[in-house]
Amino acid sequence: MPEAPDLEVIKDYLNHRTAGLVVCSAKVLRPTVMRSLAGDFPTDVQGRTLDEFRRQGKFLLAQLSGDRLLVVNPMLTGAFQYCGSSERLYKRTCFILSFSNDRELRYLDDRQMGIAYYVDDESLSQVPRLGEQGPDVLDPGSFEEFQERLRPYHGEIKGILTRGRVLAGIGNAYADEILFAAGIYPFRKKKALTQEETCRLFEMSREVVQEAIPVLRKRLGDNIHVKIRDFLKVHNKGGQACPRCGNTITQVSANQRITSYCRRCQPGLLLKN
Q: Is residue 269 part of a domain?
């Protein structure tokens, strides 16, 4: 799943290369991923100028001329590719925007879990989950506001962190990293967190994401469609040594989601079924 650090790098990369380009044509190869609320997408988008990309939580939004936006929620398996029009087409390509510089922006999704919405400003509010997100993880507001947003929730802290309503932009991988940095057990109930732990969670959320961005920018280069997570400290590192204490990292799988943590640095007990 592209999360805030991934999408932040992709956003900057595309803005540097595509701002001001004209869409010459568009193709939808996998109609299941496209929802148009502003006419026929391939016909309507043709001839429009791409103004800029912006990120809103785990969504990427492309602003086009004439009051149009392309809003993409990549979900678990979506990715973006910017390449020459003659470059080999991946089978997982779902739609293509062809630009006036003979290059293309392609959306790839091998499981077609993500969804793109072609909308105007008035229908932007109809994009599911876009407006339900909380403040962005890179602009979270004050600690007091963070505490207030946490107040209604009573479940496990990792699940709360990934919902996007307390902080937008955090998914499964970076939730593991944030909780490790804060020294908090991922299955801990929110109500059991101390004031000090809640403060560490707030501070580490932004810090972990900020630190990942320059690493990803350097590692990705032009391959923005590639997912790079090998530099993370605990996520998907089950069985390896904890970088902080040397203990073996524990990895638990449930509901098609893995949780990785260090039992020594993040002490706690697994809940019984």
A: no
Over residues 17-24, the mean pLDDT reads 97
**Interatomic CA distance for residues 147 and 48, integer angstroms:** 43
Could you tell me which of 235, 269, 265, 267 has the C-alpha nearest to residue 251?
Answer: 235
182, 188 contact by CB (below 8 A): no
Please give the Cα distance from 13 to 79 (Å, whole number).
14
**Which residue's structure tokens are 């040397």?**
246
When pLDDT is cut at 50, 70 and 90, the band that residue 272 belongs to is very low
**Structural domain for 19, as ranges:** 4-132
pLDDT for 191-202, tens place per residue? 999 999 999 999
Q: Are residues 30 and 112 in the same domain?
A: yes
Report yes or no on 106 lying in a domain. yes
Query: DSSP labels for 111-170?
Result: T---EEEEEETTTGGGSTTGGG--SBTTS---HHHHHHHHTT--SBHHHHHHHSSSSBT-
In the chain, the number of structural domains is 2
pLDDT of 273 reads 36
Can you say whether residue 153 is alpha, beta or left, with left for phi > 0 and alpha for psi between -120 and 50 degrees?
beta
pTM above 0.90, yes or no: yes
Q: Are residues 128 and 170 in the same domain?
A: no
